[in-house]
Amino acid sequence: MTFLSSLWGGEARHVARALDGRRSNKNRRASLNLMFQPMVAGNLINDALAREQGFLARILVSHPPSRIGTRLRPRRELLMQNMQYATGDTDKWKTAIRQLASIKPNYSEIDNSIQNTVLCFDEEAWVPLEEYYRTVEEGQRPDGDYREVRSFASKSLEQACRIAAVLQKVDEPTATGIDLDHAQSGIVVAEWFLNEIRRMTTHTEVNSKEVKAQLLLDALYESRGHEAFKKQDIYTGIGRRKELSINARQSDALLRLLEDLGYVARNDDEWHVAEQYGGL
């Protein structure tokens, strides 16, 4: 985790090889996109070591609520709408990335490291940044809104600045500064993620029941895929596995939990793993 955090911060990395000798990479940053099942992600979010080392504070976490049961529009209409939104957004993004990739970086004559362009905020852009800083800082008081997510809150202003820079570069690849509009946009996005982790931390603490539900879901998918099964198949078969040891009463509770989360669906006395679940 410490290594990943250092990459996030752009610290120099030194590699020693027998053939090439010692080489250094400076001003390089890592970006990760991780997707977990909710109950597995909860274990990481509530991990004390990951928090104390600052690893989690460097991640923008989101957990969108399930839309199962509300997707009632015709499939063709929904597909066409999604294609319309996606085409406009992705085309703009692709164009910006191509422009940025075509710009040749400047290298240091001393150690051949990349000399990154420093984006400075316009004078008027500092006003909302200072206001956001005060809001987040006050929220970390013992009675503040962010008292339970202080490590995330402490990094939120830096996240807002990074996001503002990305948005500025996407809109203007040759930009050398960050204006008021993009600073405000960066704050909006960073604040949303801060409130999202606060919501998750406050309301979705993982317990042993949820961990066992994840183990059961994985076992069901491994043995049945999306085929139908009955409740007794669990406590007379799969549930006898050493890591599960599930009886009839526990089967009821775990199936209800998985149904509430949208991972299994019921048809009379039969169940099946939901189609959108593809295993870990």
Give an account of the 3D structure:
This protein has 280 residues and is mostly helical. 51% of the residues lie in helices and 10% in strands. It has helices at residues 2-8, 38-45, 48-52, 75-102, 126-138, 150-171, 180-203, 208-224, 231-236, 248-260; strands at 13-17, 21-25, 106-107, 114-115, 120-121, 177-178, 229-230, 264-267, 270-273. Strands 7-9-8 form a 3-stranded antiparallel β-sheet. Strands 1-2 form a two-stranded antiparallel ribbon. The protein has a two-stranded antiparallel ribbon with strand order 3-4. It is elongated.
User: What structural category characterises the helix and strand content?
Assistant: mainly alpha
Please report the distance between the alpha carbons of the first and last residues: 21 Å
One letter per element, helices H and strands E, the order comes to HEEHHHEEEHHEHHEHHEE
Shape: elongated
Largest sheet: 3 strands, antiparallel
Low-confidence stretches: none
Helix percentage: 40-55%
From the alpha carbons, calculate the radius of gyration and give it in angstroms. 24 Å
As a percent range, the share of strand residues is 5-15%
Mean pLDDT, rounded to whole units? 79
The count of strands amounts to: 9
